[in-house]
Write a structure and sequence with these properties.
- The structure is a single chain.
- The protein is of the alpha+beta class.
- 22% of the residues lie in helices and 26% in strands.
- A six-stranded antiparallel sheet has the order 6-7-8-9-11-10, covered by helices on one side. Strands 3-4-1-2-5 form a five-stranded mixed sheet.
- The protein is elongated, with a radius of gyration of 24 Å.
- 24% of the residues are buried.
- About 13% of the residues have low confidence.
Length: 209
């Protein structure tokens, strides 16, 4: 479910109404509005700059306002002075917005997500990726190789006994030192898809028991 926010240029200019999805960051907003990367977004007068990687969907409420300015203006205290000047002194006008459905002028923010293997904390060394398959039932070490030709080979260490009752258990081929090669359960073309496929199979195995 999207949230609607407004970005206000601290030095004047048109306000921008934005529609943000889960996972949207400050950097996503800057890219959508074509703001310089060094620009600063804040949540109000005297507030600290928002880090580029902050998840704004989680930290902002629907209808929230952000302020955009350059780091020089923010650092010099200009933003605080400007916002203080713009504050209504009396009889403030209440602006009410209707967000259902969103206005046709609302700008959707394009999220730039990280690859799944990065989100899961896997580490890449050339064409070899190492990390853990993570589920609600536990984690298991793994490594994956991805060739330039698109071949993805997947391995897991000491898989749980619950897998032995899963229909895909025959796809797990034992190797040395507790490692198992996983014959492709489904067509996977990249490392992220391979990790997700293994985690899905592990979860299914525990849910079936």
């Amino acid at each position: 479910m999207s949230k609607n926010i407004t970005v206000i240029p601290a030095t004047g200019g048109a306000y921008k109404d934005l529609s943000i999805d889960p996972g949207t960051t400050a950097l996503d907003i800057k890219k959508t509005l074509q703001l310089p990367k060094e620009n600063v977004l804040t949540k109000g007068r005297g507030a600290e700059p928002i880090p580029d990687d902050e998840n704004l969907y989680e930290s902002l409420s629907d209808g929230a306002k952000l302020y955009s300015t350059s780091p020089v203006e923010w650092g010099s205290g200009f933003l605080e002075l400007l916002l203080h000047t713009l504050e209504p002194k009396s009889s403030p006008v209440r602006i009410q917005r209707s967000y259902s459905p969103p206005s046709s002028h609302t700008i959707p923010v394009i999220r730039h997500p990280l690859p799944y293997w990065v989100e899961r904390g896997w580490v890449r060394d050339g064409q070899v990726y190492t990390g853990d398959y993570q589920t609600d039932f536990g984690t298991w070490s793994g490594w994956i190789t991805a060739s330039a030709g698109g071949r993805v080979d997947t391995y897991i260490a000491h898989p749980p006994s619950a897998l032995e009752r899963h229909p895909h258990w025959p796809c797990f081929r034992k190797r040395e030192h507790g490692w198992f090669f996983i014959h492709p359960i489904q067509d996977v073309s990249d490392v992220s898809a391979a990790i997700l496929a293994v985690e899905t199979t592990l979860t299914e195995a525990f849910n079936c028991n």
